[in-house]
Write a structure and sequence with these properties.
By secondary structure, the chain is an alpha/beta fold. The protein contains 18 helices and 22 strands. The protein is elongated and about 135 Å long.
């Protein structure tokens, strides 16, 4: 006999409906030892008892031997569709067989049969059929509820089955893709991949291949699907290539964004390093040209040429500032300032940059809370937004700067928030452009007209200051940038006003300059000596400490932030502790992470590179203040 579908040693649970008790005993004897396991026959004499037994116990097979057996089967199979029914009747009428099958019976046997084999065979196959049906139902339920995609493809590449998950993953109904070519939704560039995998897996039974494809979603986009295909063409229960697929679109996107972030981080480090070196060069160019102009008559033949060099250096300095803001390596000197005042003071630069065809207006709410920002960085933000608006209005238009306050910002943080809104009447942007405007080096301008760093710089600065940006724009409807900065309670800080005046009031005060770049050091020394300071220059922090320990009564310590082995900020900390009379001044335009400084203490004068000679002289003059008698130097520990 063929093996039973029931567990080894477990008897078949047979329910017998028959009004004849003797018949029931005979059936029980005939079924004894089916597949090596006795059938457990439960006999009921009437319809009601049979229905009650079906509801109360497990039944592997129901034998029906009553005259109204077909009607009973019709009623009972509707209540228990998973239970197989076998009609026991001596009526050989084919019409009865058809009625029994229509009612739900799986077989018919003679009621008075003396040979046990037909009865045993009918019971065994009825039970096995029911078992297979249950397995199939369970399998289908698992497939229907599967999160991943299951596809069966025949040897011609036609989809013979696809799981309902295709609706969730690709947006198609199951019936829409059953019977279609397997390449119907494959991205054209991936067709060689799928055909190569199909040919490979089809060659050997049981062979498995892995592949990744892009499949078109019903909305027209593509999803990235990771697949494993296995050959079951020779399996009579499958007769196809089974493909399991997982939607890995989000994982691929996250990986791509992670890689892009790593590249941007590396680019930022490169940009910061290049900007640092370039700032040193610009410091020399800018300062030396200033010194040259001091010795030239205002209307001399070379004055205009030198001024053009200065203008080019200024433009280069703005570009390096953008690179540093993008890389977030720019040193910040935050102050508590009035946003309205900064915007108003930047207005003359804005109007000079954008030209006469654009009308600039201001709507400044003096009730906006103060903000803690680096004024220079905020001016850079305002100028970059103005330039962006200018380029969006080639035929002219209007530009409005508004300052106000909010209780909450776009990211949901509590306020108060100071809000700067910049609104233009330019060409506007579509959704695709809006999604990329803060990407470094992304630009819609023609080649040579933009670096793609302007708005990336804005985003970097605002984020670095703890703020957020909203953008509202549509084609033909202009653009509105809304910048939110956290408000700060307390009095406003004094902000030094840049000047070109070169005051010769050093009074012979002693200045120690610590700068490892020879060209920058040379120009700094020349500027300070011209302003009547006594200047000593060293290359690094160790040499500076030795000079201070030697007992020289230095009044000011001017140090670059980025020095070999030890940063300028670390040098200043040691000098303040041991020689409190020496007033520190820091200079730099670059704050790499390893330098240990990104935001300077508010009480430290700072000169941002590339600097003007007057700026350096003014910082040193303010640092010295009124002279006091020199104390005895602290002993060396």
């Amino acid at each position: 006999m063929e093996p039973s579908s029931t567990p080894a040693g477990a008897p078949l649970e047979v329910l017998l409906l028959d009004g004849d008790a003797a018949q029931a005993d005979r059936v029980a004897r005939l079924l004894a030892g089916v597949d090596g396991a006795d059938a457990q026959v439960t006999h009921v004499a009437d319809r009601a008892a049979a229905l009650a037994a079906l509801d109360a116990r497990r039944c592997d097979v129901v034998l029906v031997g009553t005259a109204d057996g077909v009607d009973f089967i019709a009623d009972a199979s509707a209540r228990r569709p998973a239970v197989p029914f076998v009609l026991m009747s001596d009526d050989d009428d084919p019409a009865l067989d058809r009625r029994a099958l229509q009612a739900g019976a799986v077989d018919r046997v003679d009621r008075d049969v003396a040979d046990a084999r037909p009865l045993r065979r009918a019971v065994r196959y009825a039970a096995e059929r029911a078992h297979r049906a249950r397995l199939e139902s369970r399998f289908r339920a698992l497939i229907d509820r599967a999160h991943d995609l299951v596809v069966v493809v025949d040897w011609c590449g036609v989809v013979r089955f696809i799981s309902p998950s295709v609706q969730r993953i690709l947006g198609y109904a199951q019936a829409e893709r059953t019977g279609t070519d397997m390449t119907k939704d494959v991205h054209p560039d991936d067709l060689p991949v799928i055909w190569g995998a199909f040919e490979e897996v089809a060659q050997t039974a049981g062979h498995v291949v892995s592949l990744v494809l892009r499949l078109r979603h019903a909305d027209g986009t593509y999803r990235t699907i990771e697949m494993k295909a296995s050959n079951h063409l020779e399996d009579p229960a499958v007769q196809g290539i089974v493909v399991n697929g997982w939607d890995v679109t989000e994982r691929i996107d996250l990986t791509a964004r992670h890689i892009a972030a790593q590249r941007l981080e590396a680019l930022g480090q490169l940009a910061g390093g290049v900007a640092h070196d370039f700032n040193n060069l610009l410091t020399v160019i800018r300062a030396q040209t200033d010194l040259v102009l001091m010795d030239l008559p205002p209307d001399g033949p070379l004055t205009a040429d030198v001024q053009s060099v200065q203008d080019a250096a200024d433009r280069a300095a703005r570009l390096t500032g953008q690179l540093l803001a993008f890389s977030r390596d720019q040193i910040m000197q935050p102050r508590r300032v009035d946003l309205c005042t900064v915007v108003r003071q930047t207005g003359h630069l804005v109007e000079r940059v954008i030209g006469e065809t654009i009308a600039v207006t201001y709507d400044l709410d003096e009730g906006a809370p103060p903000v803690v920002v680096d004024p220079g960085q905020l001016e850079q933000v305002v100028l970059n937004l103005a330039v962006n608006a200018r380029d969006a209005m080639p035929a002219g238009g209007s530009l409005v700067f508004s300052v106000g306050r909010r209780a909450v910002c776009a990211r949901g943080g509590g306020g108060p928030w100071a809000v700067l809104t910049v609104r233009d009447t330019g060409v506007g942007m579509d959704a695709a452009t809006r999604a990329r405007i803060f990407e470094p080096f992304f630009t819609t301008k023609s080649k040579g007209r933009g670096t793609g760093l302007g708005l990336a710089t804005v985003h970097g600065v605002v984020t670095q200051l703890g703020g957020c940006i909203e953008v509202v724009s549509a084609p033909g409807e202009g653009t509105e940038f809304v910048l939110c900065f956290p408000g700060s309670a307390g009095p406003l800080d004094a902000v030094a006003t840049p000047t070109d005046a070169f005051t010769l009031d050093g009074g012979g005060r002693r200045v120690l300059v610590v700068e490892d770049d020879d060209a920058v050091a040379q120009v700094a020394v020349r500027v300070l000596r011209r302003a009547a300071f006594q200047v000593t220059r060293v290359r690094d922090a160790e040499a500076a400490l030795l000079a201070l320990e030697a007992g020289a009564a230095f009044d000011v310590l001017v140090s670059d932030v980025v020095l070999p082995r030890q940063s300028g900020l670390q040098l200043v900390a040691v000098a303040r502790a041991r020689w409190p009379r020496v007033r520190p001044v820091l200079m730099s335009g670059y704050a790499p992470e390893e330098a240990g400084v990104g935001t300077l203490p508010t009480d430290l004068p700072f000169v941002r590179k590339p600097f003007r000679p007057a700026t350096l002289v003014e910082a040193v003059r303010r640092a010295t203040g009124p002279l006091s008698p020199a104390p005895t130097p602290a002993p060396v520990p």
